[in-house]
Amino acid sequence: MRISHDEIRKTAALARLAMSDDEVSDMAGQLDPILGYIAKLNELDTTGVKPANHAIDIHNALREDEVQPSLAQDEALANAPAQNGEAFVVPKVVG
Amino acid sequence: MEFETVIGLEVHAQLKTRTKIFCGCPTTFGAAPNTNVCPVCLGMPGVLPVLNRQVVEYALKMACATNCEVNQFNEFARKNYFYPDLPKGYQVSQFDLPIAEHGWVDIEVDGEARRIGLTRIHMEEDAGKLIHSEREPESYVDLNRAAVPLIEIVSEPDIRTPAQAAAYLKKLHAILRYLDICDGNMQEGSFRCDANISLRPKGREELGTRTELKNMNSFRNVQRALEYEERRQRDILLEGGKVVQQTLLWDPDRNVTNPMRGKEEAHDYRYFPDPDLVPVIIDDEWLERARKSLPELPDERKARFINELGLPEYDAGVMTSARELADYFEAALRDYPQAKKLSNWIMTEMMREFKGEEAAAIASCPVTPVNLASLLGMIEAGKISGKIAKTVMAEMMESGREAEVIVKEKNLIQMSDEGDLTAAVAEIIAASPKQVEQFRAGKGKVMGFFVGQLMKKTRGRANPQLANKLFQQALNED
Fold it and tell me: Distance between CA atoms of B121 and B63, rounded to whole angstroms?
């Protein structure tokens, strides 16, 4: 196994996801081949190759500071699971 | 045991751009909730953020103004955490390659100069705003502020007292305002400060356990919160206890710090370069342009006020503490070129109206620099007395009307003509035989009584020097 159950639990907690033990095992089974696939990259000899954060070699893609139309309030809220006509409604996060 | 306090500050300054950092939504404060939002800043799938050029320009200006080394290769990183005010599940920030590092600003507290190091300045996006319901177990999310551009300015732990912390903040605030890249409004949150504070036995190198303070939305609150926390930690250490590393919220109503509840989760931000944003390379030419675009900054302006206008250091410091005040001062100086008298007047008669906190408030004062200059010119020319000028000033502050108009309308012109006063002088002398006797017996102090009587009769308009002279003459003649 390339990823432990504890690592999965920690990652889930950081993403605020509740997972049962069964789900953790299930996830381990799914993540393992994915990580294995990515691990293939480690087989390459990258000595002398600079780390590249981007696949394309461009820089300074900049925008002028000009206002563009925003969404209407009802459009902005349209996909929200819960809203009150002006704001997104979420479970209380403090107190 | 004697302790040394070690303070480091993190300042978030909202940049004065028209639009957000990665999309064209406006940054206007106070819009109806969720109306300054679009698919990009809402974090919808498949959108492509594009960096606002002005954000880089502004951050560069601040970097140059605070003596930083500029990193010419810039990258944005994702800081991952889940919180409802963060629509994407990550905040776009800069991590290992911030735009600027290793800067400094100079401050002064009680005549003692100190250089405060800047660790770094980086560009990032703001989060949205959460409002917590008082009755329901729910919170309301407004994403208008999400992705508004910020720079975070991190100081070295070079600050030793709460007063230095306040002075450092005021200096940063002034620089941002001089550069005109941040409106500096602490109430609206466009200039925010978090503080780290720890104590260590004097002479020890190793830092003590620190606490982090939040929720201080004025210079005064920053200083008070740090003073409170300094005392709290000292008491714990003196009793042999241990300071717990935690985040504390300042309660300005009760003047105490309280542990922050709720957000105390283990943090693991898993920073990685944002694949949606390409690097920004600031070439020499761009950097040079930014350097050349800097206006005169507070320290330079202060030096000029001292060297060229002959202002005392204290006055020069106050007059340059906000760009608006320095501009006001210089505008009034054009019509009334007496720097010291002008700064005196502004400090004693005007600044107290602004409660000291916001020297910039002078910009919205109803008395224009031209009107102030004409009022002071009238004192200078002997048309009104300094005392009358103060009452005229009060009226000007109230109504914004011109000094000359008020003086004329209320008939406040100083009486400097002997002929207008001699009759009154004679009357007072005739009515005050006791005081005349005292004066002749050598009690010079009685002169105050005579002049006072004359002022009463003339409603303060008599020229005091002339009054003195006339009484001397009249009393010595008889």
Answer: 7
At residue A95, the pLDDT reads 43
Kindly provide the ipTM of the predicted complex, given to two decimals.
0.89
Tens of pLDDT, residues B166-199? 999 999 999 999 999 999 888 888 999 999 999 9
Q: Return the structure tokens found at B451.
A: 């002049």
Q: Chain B partners of A10 at a C-beta cutoff of 8 Å?
A: 268
- Written in H, E and C, the secondary structure of A4-28 is CHHHHHHHHHHCCCCCCHHHHHHHH
- Cβ–Cβ of B139/A93 closer than 8 Å? yes
Which three-class secondary structure state does DSSP give residue B407?
A: helix
Q: Are B333 and B344 in contact (CB under 8 A)?
A: no
Q: Mind listing the pLDDT tens digit for each residue in B209-256?
A: 999 998 888 898 999 999 999 999 999 999 999 999 888 999 888 888
Beta strands B69-70 and B51-52, pairing class: unpaired
Residues of A in contact with B32 (CB under 8 A): 73, 86
CATH code of B418-475, in short, is: 1.10.10.410
Q: A70 CB near a chain B CB, below 8 Å? A: yes
Structural domain spans, chain B: 3-286, 296-409, 418-475
Facing residue for B141 by CB, picked from A54, A87, A94: A87
Q: How far is CA B22 from the centre of its chain?
A: 30
| Contact between chains at B51 and A61 (C-beta distance less than 8 A) | yes
Q: Over 70: is that where the pLDDT of B39 sits?
A: yes
β-sheet bridge partners, residue B256 = B251
Burial of residue B242, with CB atoms counted within 10 A of its CB: 0-12 exposed, 13-18 middle, 19 or more buried: exposed
Is residue B365 predicted with pLDDT exceeding 90?
no
